[in-house]
Write a structure and sequence with these properties.
disordered N terminus; Methylamine Dehydrogenase, Chain H; mainly beta; 44% strand; 1 helix; 28 strands; 4-stranded antiparallel β-sheet; 381 residues
Length: 381
Amino acid sequence: MNRFLTPTRPLGLVVFVAVVAGFGSLMGASSAFGTSKPPSGASRASFQGLGQMPGSSCGTQALGISGDGSVIAGAGCVSSGKTEAFRWTAAGGYRVLGDLGGGSSDARAASFDGSVVVGQSVDASGTPRAYRWTAAQGMVALPLLQAGTLGNEADSVTDDGTMVAGGNVWWKTSGQTGSFGGGTCSALQAPLRMVDLSADGSVAAGSGAGGLDMFGQQATNAYRSTPAGNCQDIDAVFNRNSDASGISADGTVIVGEMQVGSPYLAFRWTASTGMVNLGSLGGGLSRATATSQDGSVVVGTSLTTTSSGSAHAFVWTARCGMLDLQTALRGAKIPSGWVLQTATDVSEDGTVITGWGVSPPPPGFKFGQTEPWRAILPAPC
C-alpha cells in the first residue's frame, strides 16, 4: 500500500511540509453521512510518536504501512531538497535505506509483512528512478520506464512483494512488464497515473484525463484499471477534477478527493454507490488517502476551520462518520503539544494508522518538527 502527500504529485521526491492545505478553496460543504458520532473506543487505543529518522535535520514523514501494520515506510529530510528513505519497526526502530547514488530517496509503500519496500531514488546521474528494496538485495533500480521518463517511480506493491506499480506501468519479479493505459483505454485517457494496487495486483487506482473543467481546462478524473489496461473513469461528473489516492486490498473500494463546486472533498467509491462525499471536519476541504482491506475504514486529512493551517488527520467509518483522529484517540494519552495533521495509511484490518504531524517543541525551541506517528485504534466509536 502507499500514500501521497498532495492531490497531484509532482515529479521528484518528497516535499516536506508541516501543514497540508493544498486541497482547493476554503468553501464549506456538508457530509453525506450527517453528524459524526462521538468516539467511545478510545480505551483500547494507543499512540506512539516515532521521533526523527537518524540524520534528519528538517523533519520526517511516514508515507506507507505494511498490510499487517508492523512496518512503516517514509522519508527523512536530511538537507534542503534531499531526503532519505527509511523502514521502521517497533522492535528495531529506524533503518535508513540509502539511495541509488544521487543522495536522495523516499519509501512509499511496503508489502504485507514489510519485507519489501518500494519508492523513488535519484541515481548517480541525477535521474529519479523507481526502486525495490529487500534486506537481502538492498535498493535495486527497476525498469518501470526508461530512466528519466515521466512516471519513473514505484508507488505501490502487492502483498507478496512480487509486483510493483508506478505511473502508467507495472513490473513483476518474473521480469514481466505492462501498462495500465493499454487495453480498453482510449488515447485520450492514457497515460494513466496509478498510485495504489489491490493486494493481488489485479486492480489499480489513480487518475487520468477527464473532460474540460469549469475553467475550460483539461480535468483530471479518478480511474480504476487492470494490468491488462482495461480502465474505467469512475467519476460520473466528467467535467470536474477528482483523483484516487488508495484502493482497498480486495479491490472493491477506491478513495481520494473530488471537486464539489469549488472545494475538494474526500470520497469513497464502490461500483454500486459511485463516488460518495465523506464531508470534512468543519473546514470544507478534505482528502481520503487510504482504506482498509474491505474499505470499511478510511483515513486522510481535513481542514478543521477555514484556516489553511488547520489540517487534522481523520478516520471514517459508516457507523462513526468522519472523526478527528486525535479526538478519537483521546484515551491514548497523546503528549500535550502534538497535532496529528495527516493520516497517510492504514493496515488491512483497519486498526493501525500512520501519518505525520507536528510534535511538541523541544526544550528551548518555539516550534515542533514534522514527525511521523503510529496509532492503534480498534474501534473509532
